[in-house]
Amino acid sequence: MGWFSASPSWVVGALPAGTGGKKPGFPLCGPRWYDRHCQPTVLNASGYVTARLQSTVSSKITGRIVEVLVEEGMAVTEGQVLARLDDTTERSYVALAEAQLRAVRSALAELEVRHEEAQLDLYRQRQLLDKHLIGQADFDATQAHADSLEARIANQREQEVVAEREIDVRRTAREDTVIRAPFSGVAISKDAQPGETISPVSAGGGFTRTGVCTIVDMSSLEIEVDVNESYINRVSPGQRVVATLDAYPDWEIGARVITTIPAADRQRATVLVRIAFDALGDSRILPDMGVNVRFLEAGSPEEDQVERATEG
Q1: What is the mean pLDDT of residues 209-238?
Q2: I need a labelling partner for 142 at 20 to 30 A (CA). Which of 57, 86, 107, 252 fits?
C-alpha cells in the first residue's frame, strides 16, 4: 500500500518556466495530461506487490524439531516435507496399539474355536434329547453356552474394529510430526532450527516457535494501492493499468483493476484497490516491492492499444 495517496494526473497552477507550457516529463497531447507514451492517464498511485496466498507453515502439535529441510529461496511443491518433529513417543503409541490389536485377534480366534466346539456339543445334545436320554434342562444349558460364545465373538469383533481405529489415530498423530508444504510456492523465510520447540499456538517467553517457514505462491502476486477517496470515482473494475516497479523504473508492466475494496480508511481517507498483473512468472516481481501505477482512461483507443500490445 502506497506511502502517499493517489493523485490526479493533471496539476492546477502555473508550470515552471522554460517548459513551454507543458509539464516536465509528461507531453501534452491534447486537453489533458498524458503519460510519456501519450496514453491518457486519469490517476497516478503508488503501492506494493502483495501475495494473496502466503502462509507461515506450522505444525498441528507441539513438539521438538529434529530436522528442517527448507531454506530461504527454495521452491517447494504441495505436500513436500519441510521439517520433522521428534516422533519417539508417537512411534511407541503406534507399537502399543498394534500389540493390542494382535491380542484382540488372538482372543477372537480362541473364541471362534470354542464356539465351534459348543456347536458340535449342541448337535449331540439335541440328538440325545430327541432320544429322551437327557432332560430339557441339560439341553437348554448347552444352548445357552453356545449363544454366550456367539455373543462374545460379536463383541470381540467390535473390539477388533476399535483397536484398528486406535492404530489409525496413532498413525495420524505420528504423521502430524511431519510438516509438509500446504501449497506450491517459494520459501521466503526460515523461522526455526533443529532442537527448538514448535507449537501451533504461542506459548510465550520467546522460546517456542510458531512456524517453520513462510511460503509464498508467486502465481498469486498482485498490486495493492491506496487511492484518495476524492479520486476513487476514476477507478473501475477491469480498468487498464500500467505498473512500474521502483526497482525497474524503465520496465512497464500491463495490469488491470480487479476490484475496489468496499471500505474506506477513515484516518487516511483512502480506499484500497486491488490490481492484477496481466502475466506472472517473471522472477523480477517479488512480494513487498514498491510499485507506481498509472490508471488509464477507460474505453480510450490508447487503452485498447496497450491491451493489444500486452496480449501480443
Answers
A1: 94
A2: 107
